[in-house]
Amino acid sequence: MTTEQQSNGAERLCETLIVQGVDVCFANPGTSEMHFVAALDRRPDMRCVLGLSEGVVTGAADGYGRMADKPAATLLHLGPGLANGLANLHNAKRARTPVINVVGDHATYHLKFDAPLASDIDGLARPMSDWVGRATHPDKLPSEAADAWEAAVSMPGVATLILPADIAWNKAQGGSIKPRQRAALPPVEMAKIKAAAADLRQPGRTVLLLGGRALRAGTLQRIAAICAKTGAEFMAETFNARIERGQGRVPVRKLPYYVDPALARLRGVERIILVDARPPVAFFAYPDKPSLMNEEGSRITTLVGHHEDLADAIERLADEVGAAETAPLPGGGVKEPPAFDPGPLTADTACAIVAASLPDGAIVTDESVSSGRMFFEASYNAPAHDYMQLTGGSIGIGLPLATGAAVACPDRRVVCLQADGSAMYTVQALWTQARERLDVTTVILSNRRYAILENEMANVGVQDYGANARRMLTFDDPALDWISLARGHGVEAARAQTGAELADLLRSSFRRRGPFLVEAVI
Fold this sequence. Notes:
Helix content: 25-40%
GO molecular function: acetolactate synthase activity; flavin adenine dinucleotide binding; thiamine pyrophosphate binding
CATH topology of the largest domain: Rossmann fold
Keywords: Thiamine pyrophosphate
GO biological process, one term: small molecule metabolic process
CATH architecture of the largest domain: 3-Layer(aba) Sandwich
Structural class: alpha/beta
Number of strands: 17
Family: Belongs to the TPP enzyme family.
Protein name: Acetolactate synthase large subunit
């Protein structure tokens, strides 16, 4: 498009996003966004992906950003459209995923009339965004959009730009748009490097608690070398945006979800050093149990935060402790995945079969909640893969996360390990997978109940409960028909009730193009 053709604010916004390398827009637009839709229509270099609910849109942007390491845009309709997508923006914010939301608003002069869809968009956006801005003039949109991009990539995090309709449709001056450069992350102070090195040399147990970028393969290799040299331990946070793992990579264990096993894992640990991680806090409060899962008297310090140069900090720490360039893989290297039971399916055998069947280079999105807890252990020696999971606890992320990952990495098979209850929150993602011909294999772990809540009833001390409570924890009457649900969204599907059936269906799905869903009845 020539500058002469760029005639309004919407076109300037679109051009700025493309100049900054944002070339995917997940969208569910409405009337106030039509000028931006028209601008997108004139730019075939921007891929537009429709989601049939805003939770699909924002969850897909999260999956895309985690795998592409750059933001996608979302296009959302006014405050209610944004509100529909907030749950998965909460997850994206917790994952520190770069996302740029474009949220339409009424024309500036129309707001005073309090039309039915008017709302406090700024107030809605703020809790789930790291940056909120409002477009003020068509000529300022290139700068304002670049501010949103810079915020998304530098934190990294969720940036929300509110676009009033008249700012989108009013005439704008042309001219070339120069890309804004990404600012370098600040280095960690040398005093913190030396303090961490001193802690690592101390007798007793020291743990490096890892999150974020610390869980990429190259960085994990250096951290393993540091621990091999000093005798320290390392483990990942319970819920992580992305872990590069599998054969040929350093295996990392996660801090358990439940409080008692987590307390046991950290018992006797005298020092915890956070590496792009948060303190080990329990997901919920429980009667007579602590909120922090480290022992009283143990010390928590931060080596590097998410806004600092992690790679540089790890290299300097390795130099400070005299760590070797690489560390051998624990346990003597690669092992074969465990054998699985071909008989009737249980949650554990289903997880073992998925782990044993993964194709090389797969991307796994895990929202299996309670039924898939065994998968992480079973897949330590699976072929090399990326593992993404629910980060903020707001269910309904699995199917959209897989959708966005498949858009970001079209040459890799995405395997979505999905609980049936949470899948219903954003089941419309299956339609987007079908429309975009995405290579996603979804495994629904179908136990027809909220098993996690049954566990939580016991955790809060409720051992016996009756029909009223049970009706809020189960959905087997009527049972969800996942084959019909998938086919109704354009996705081919089949049901597996034995291990042999599940293994056969997985292998078949990996040989074909496009999405496929397997209901694993457990």
